[in-house]
User: Fold this.
Amino acid sequence: DQEVSSKELQEMSTQGSKYINKEIQNAVNGVKEIKSLIVKTNEERKSLLHTLEEAKKQKEDALNETRDSETKLKAFSGVCNETMMALWEECKPCLKQTCMKFYARVCRSGSGLVGRQLEEFLNQSSPFYFWMNGDRIDSLLESDRQQAHMLDIMQDHFGQASSIMDELFRDKFFTREFPDISHYQPFSLLHRRPHMFFPKSRFAR
Amino acid sequence: SLLPYAPFEPLNFQDMFQPFFDMIRQAQQAIDVNFHGPAFQHPPMDFIKEGDEDNRAVCREIRHNSTGCLKMKDQCEKCQEILSVDCSASSPSQAQLRQELNDSLRIAEKLTKKYNELLQSYQWKMLNTSALLEQLNEQFSWVSRLANLTQDEDHYYLQVITVTSRTSDSDAPSGATEVSVKLFDSDPITVSVPEEVSRNNPQFIETVAEKALQEYRKKNRE
Assistant:
């Protein structure tokens, strides 16, 4: 054990408190830095949203063109029907077998039910639908629906969060410049005087 | 306003900062969408290779309405033949229409894929903001708690209570100095300073303060 005088302990306390004081200042600055990052991310998000809107417009134009071509082509559905029907009858068993193999290997659940459902689906489908890539069109339309739904949800959530953040960051705490508190005085000294003479030091805390 | 109180009244930091916490928490809750929920399953776009995570999407599609099976048409010769049937002999304009359809389909698929990537970037931005809010909450809670604790009279932030060299029953390494401190409202915290940092070295008290602060923040998080 070694003797340490009370004066030395007090000096250590003062020096240690200076260090802690700096850390408090760092934390306050950290809060502001995080706030700036949030604001920056939000700006980037807005810009991304603009890009999304443009991409959405392009995508929808292409989808509309696809649908138009599909509608026009449907008017010819009787043409080549015989050839297609014959090929379709041979295509169906292969398609069923390939799909069931894939399902059993990858999906690993309820193959029996899926098999019956698939057979029914193939019997009801038209080779013309197949010839026109109707499955790809349906898949695109389904994607479009899901994407619109996803964006709606995200926009809704982000809208709520943004308005709260805007209100939060308008507060003086986030806009005020904090004073330099590197010249530390023990806190007790401040308390012995009226607060009105030292308002800035109080804010720093 | 940060100063809703009379000038001579002590500031009540808890009341002052609590709305901030509430707002940060509300913002976080609003932003935390369940990205793994059914609304965020990525739509199947291409034929899927085995082992690809999108296999699950094809499985879902097959279970849902069997259309996923049509993606496997490339593996059946007769199905391929249907796709290459040329009906232009009986109706010449049909060939052109079909070409137009296939072209616009390819473009639509490409743009849908691009759109999907942008949506994912958007999701990422949301997750990023949520993580920043989490950081803000953590940093803010530490600052505001200290603000509340520095109001007591006659308190140093850090008070050194004892400084002791290592004793035989101590857990500290040989030659280390054990320092017991009080930080704000904490119970005494004991930290150990290595032998090579002597008491006369200014680094000594910084090491003590840093370790005590780490311990204090750790306890507060717990």
Remarks:
- Chain B touches chain A through 111 residues (CB under 8 Å).
- The helical segments of chain B are 13-31, 55-65, 77-83, 92-149, 202-221.
- Residues 1-11, 44-51 of chain B have pLDDT under 50 and may be disordered.
- The first strand of chain B starts at residue 158 and ends at 165.
